[in-house]
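Q: Give me the 3D complex with adenosine-5'-triphosphate.
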Amino acid sequence: MKYLLKYFKTRKGILALIFFTCLAEAFGTLLVPYFVAEIIDVGIAQQSVSTIITLGFQMLVAACAAALISLISSYFSAELSASTGRYLREKLFNQAQLLTLKEFNGFGTASMITRTTGDITVIQQTIIMAAQMILPTPLIAVAAIVMTAIIHPSLIYIPLTALAVFLVVVFILLKKSAAISFTIQGRVDSVNRVVREALTGIRVIRAFDNTEYEKERMDTAFSAYADNVIRLNKIFAYFNPLVWMIMGLVMVAVAWFGGHLVLLGKIQIGSILAVTEYVILMLTYFIMTAMVLVMLPRMTACLRRVAEVLDTVPEITDEKAETAGTTGEESTARSVQADSKSLTGLQFRHVTFAYRGAEEPVLNDLNFSCQPGKTTAIIGGTGSGKSTVAGLMLRLYDIQQGHILLDGQDIRHMTQHRLREHMGYVPQKSVLFGGTIAHNLRMGAPDASEDDLRQAARIAQADTFIESLEDGYHSHVAQGGTNFSGGQKQRLCIARALVKKAPIYIFDDSFSALDFKTDAALRKALKAQMRDAALIIIAQRISTIMDADQIIVLDAGKIAGMGTHQELMATCRIYREIADSQITGKEADRHGK
Ligand SMILES: Nc1ncnc2c1ncn2[C@@H]1O[C@H](COP(=O)(O)OP(=O)(O)OP(=O)(O)O)[C@@H](O)[C@H]1O
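A: Here is the predicted complex, encoded as structure tokens.
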């Protein structure tokens, strides 16, 4: 709720406008029964056509004015609701960018999508309905009771009693429905998660002929959601008949007591009609209010889910980097910085890192540097920690011991933006976005020219296939890049990183889907064109890295060897084993000499 109130504080003007238009609308609406009573009691009673016409005209003006004001009020409410949605969505999106991968995964992608879309839609709908239906209700109620009292004070008990009975009914219904409303949003998450998994994994599901199992999983999620909604609707099935019964009883009461007062000559017959209309109008607004109140527990649940994300303090923040200056850690960092002034590129100094919750560090005391103009390769078995090293270079996680230095400065002491500005990154899993090829390539450099795109594509060996497409660089890319092959996607991701023109490039197993010839041509072009950049190539294939200036062999998170291919073939048993398992002994020997 605090985020909503915080935003509303900045929109006091529109809130005031909504309140005053509601007030005017309520006043205009209540004038109609007043004129009806006047027409009957004065115009018809005195058989004066001109009075009827005058009062009729005034009634028409009041009704039209109320309708117009209602329109204006709806506009303001819609504006407030839409801008609140935009505000919360922007906040959620920005927060998603700040959260560490662990924090993000803690919520889950499906839940983050539901929170950003469905949950905020519920909040928006509730705001718009609350502004239009809850806000005028107290005004209408007070005005209806006052107008009834003006007609005859003894009639006031009718709206008051109706109101009391109605409130008791609503209170009971809300109490019963609140718990169910809270669980419904959780069920929406489950539905989203199951549907998302089933749709994104449709190829695998079909290939494994797992459709029946998936159907059952979906059925379970859908049924759980449907059961809750049905339970909620069952509760509200009692609501309508009860309200109609209260309305019926109100009319009987007005006719009964009003009739007596008419017979006693205390009020006129038109007044009975006016009181009936006041009470019905008041109850109609209360029905609408109740409908919105039903949505309130659901909106509260949605707000709580949004706040859960917004309240999460990201583990890695720039502020933290700045304030770390007061700790002993910083003085060490500063001295490291001073020592390394002459060094450029990226350096790992005694880096030890464990994923949160893991018992053992995944990387242990790593020491190496990646220098500009040189290619550093990292090789090792699966799970040896290669991708983790890439993640640390990008500061996706913070290390527990040691220092990672960029141009001599600890990366925790610079903003994430500045650090990542230095990096061109190709992830292990190719990720493309819906749009065009050009749009994807420009992701890290929005102002890149067509020539820049062509040059990057040439280095990435992607130019031939892009140019063979009918629309070339403006060809459509489906969401996730599903209209391209694995190798094409990898080359587009490589070209995207190259367009950015960064001083450091990290290729995380990015050549694995390329054939040997393309792999070799790409590396040759990279070396020739990116002379000044520090290239970091993570790979499983020895042929991809054997030409590197420096190869780091990782084994269970430790450096098992470091040097050129020739040096490692001579000195590093693990490297030799990898090489032997991949290339024939003869070939390895040839390279080893
Ligand atoms: N987010 C994570 N949370 C916890 N443990 C993780 C996480 N990511 C990786 N690990 C663990 O860290 C170890 C190193 O993983 P990493 O992905 O760095 O290895 P890798 O050498 O790149 O493997 P591969 O060649 O198979 O991609 C593995 O044991 C893995 O289970």
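A quick observation: Residues 320-343 have pLDDT under 50 and may be disordered.
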